[in-house]
Amino acid sequence: QVRLVESGGGLVQAGDSLRLSCAASGRTFNIYATGWFRQAPGKEREFVAHSSWSGGSSTIYADSVKGRFTISRDNAKNTLYLQMNDLKPEDTAVYYCAAQVVGGQPNEYNYWGQGTQVTVSS
Fold first, then answer.
1. I need a surface site. Which of 20, 52, 60, 122 has the fewest CB within 10 A?
2. How many H helices and E strands in the chain?
3. How far apart (Å, rounded) are the C-alpha atoms in residues 101 and 54?
4. Kind and range of the H or E run holding 108
5. How high is the pLDDT of residue 103?
6. pLDDT at 55
7. Cα separation of 29 and 77, whole Å?
8. Kind of pairing, strands 93-101 and 79-84?
9. 10 Å Cβ neighbour count for 66?
10. Cα torsion for 68, 16, 50, 7, to the nearest 10°?
11. Which of 76, 78, 105 is nearest to 4 (CA)?
């Protein structure tokens, strides 16, 4: 089992920055990839960013956040980050981190956090 806990959300103005954190605990040695997703009110959950967890620097971003958001990790702290710059009102959503683990469903995120709210005012 892997537990993921997000933090760092809040209310900011357009153009501001926020850094989200996702602390992983439990069988973290099974994690091989992580990602960030978001869900705005009345919309489907959407992909934001993806990163390998250890050994490698493979990252993928949604077009809507490319150049503004950066995914990173601190393996010593078992923590995933999402640095969000130049925030826009359309970035308003609940943000979730997720993990892919060895032995889980292939190509699926097997564990999810509870989410953290990000609200961007215009």
1. 122
2. 0, 11
3. 12
4. none
5. 85
6. 63
7. 12
8. unpaired
9. 10
10. 170
11. 78
pLDDT of 58: 83
Single out the residue of 23, 22, 100, 86 nearest to residue 58, CA to CA. 100
Q: Give how far the C-alpha of residue 55 lies from the chain's centroid of Cα atoms, to the nearest Å.
A: 19
Residue 113 has a CB neighbour count (10 Å cut-off) of 23
User: What is the rounded CA–CA span in Å between residue 36 and residue 52?
Assistant: 12
User: Can you give the pLDDT at residue 8?
Assistant: 98
The amino acid occupying position 16 is: D
Give every CB contact of residue 9 below 8 A, 6+ residues apart in sequence: 18, 20, 94, 95, 116, 117, 118
Separation of alpha carbons 88 and 40, rounded Å: 13
Q: Residue 19 pairs with which residues in a beta bridge?
A: 83
Q: Residues in the chain with pLDDT < 50?
A: none
Triad 58, 83, 89: Cα angle to 5°: 120
